Amino acid sequence: MAYKNASLEKYLNDLAARTSTPGGGSAAALNAAMGAALISMVVNFTIGKPKYEEFEKDLKEILVKSEKLRFEFLNLVDLDVAAYKSKNIRDALGVPFMLARLCFEGARLVPPLIRKGNVNLISDIAVAIIFLESAFTSACFNVEINLKSLGDKKFAAQVRKELNHKEKIIKKIRLKTEEKVGQIIRG
Length: 187
Hints:
This protein has helices at residues 8-16, 24-46, 56-86, 89-107, 111-116, 122-150, 153-186. By secondary structure, it is mainly α. The chain has one domain (24-186): Four Helix Bundle (Hemerythrin (Met), subunit A) (Up-down Bundle), CATH 1.20.120. The longest helix is centred in the C-terminal third of the chain and has 34 residues, at 153-186. The chain is globular, with a radius of gyration of 17 Å. The model has no long low-confidence stretch (mean pLDDT 96).
């Protein structure tokens, strides 16, 4: 079943059902896709506005990246299902690891939008980083459970080191975004 072409209702019904797929990894990828879509929405509502004209070039670059990520995340919704069904630990590990890395890339698109994005969509910027951090954290749990099953301690240490580093940065981005967005909203 290709969920990226299915209705949201079908996906959620299957997610809620007593079946092994889709599961948390697939749901995390969908969450990340929503985060990337919110970044794209903010940019789309900003481009062409005279107030933000000086940022147009940067915004168009962000849009290209957020749209690429959105489609990659959507593909991961189905890739996670396929990896789980394959019963191959390396595949089951690879998908959430890729998701975590891509969430990190997406999170790095958020900070410039606080200043360069349409202020009327400032809360959507906060929601985007919250979705991306949530998907990142979810992916890390799925990586961790698969690392345990893999039994390769050296590889596991390398993966954990990378994800721990990225986790610190993504948390910092989320906290700073929440703080700045809160200040803008409250005036």
